[in-house]
Specification:
Structural class: alpha+beta
Number of domains: 1
Radius of gyration: 17 Å
Number of strands: 7
Shape: globular
Order of helices and strands: HEEEHEEEEH
Strand order of the largest sheet: 1-2-3-7-6-5-4
């Protein structure tokens, strides 16, 4: 006899398929971030990470694809750990943008993360710079997110 349960079945709504690294090439990451010597140190079916010279000390950039994971939990973590978190819409999809601003005005916004929801899935781009000068972290995060959405199937 097969055991039964009274628990309701969950209707999970998956979003689109995202290619490896969100469909963004190593060259495009280097172009957007303007960081020389980036190495893709982690490449899996659900995410990628780029580090300067392959070292965790310094700027780091990542793409993550969360399937069947609540974006609300990620946003709450951002609200507890970032300078500000705001709603954002990219290519018609809603999400959040988390910003970390260094107290030193010479450094400014050095970390920006964009999370966009697709049903019960979400993607996140994290852009973290170490030393100025560097491009606007949030503009980089938004553009890479836009490219990933456009590259999804």
């Amino acid at each position: 006899m097969v055991p039964t349960t009274d628990a309701p079945e969950q209707n999970i709504s998956h979003g689109p398929f995202f290619p490896e690294c969100g469909g963004v090439s190593d060259e495009e990451i280097a172009n957007q971030t303007r960081v020389p010597g980036l190495v893709n140190t982690a490449k899996t079916s659900v995410g990628c990470q780029w580090l300067s010279g392959g070292s965790i000390l310094g700027p780091h950039f990542s793409f993550s694809w969360f399937r069947g994971s609540p974006i609300g939990r990620e946003r709450k973590t951002m609200e507890l750990s970032r300078t500000s978190v705001e709603d954002i819409n990219i290519e018609g999809h809603d999400g959040f943008i988390g910003i970390n601003e260094d107290p030193d005005p010479k450094i400014g916004v050095n970390l920006c993360e964009v999370g966009i929801q697709f049903g019960d899935d979400f993607i996140e781009w994290s852009i973290s710079f170490a030393q100025p000068p560097y491009p606007d972290a949030c503009e980089v995060a938004k553009e890479l997110t836009r490219q990933s959405i456009v590259n999804s199937k």
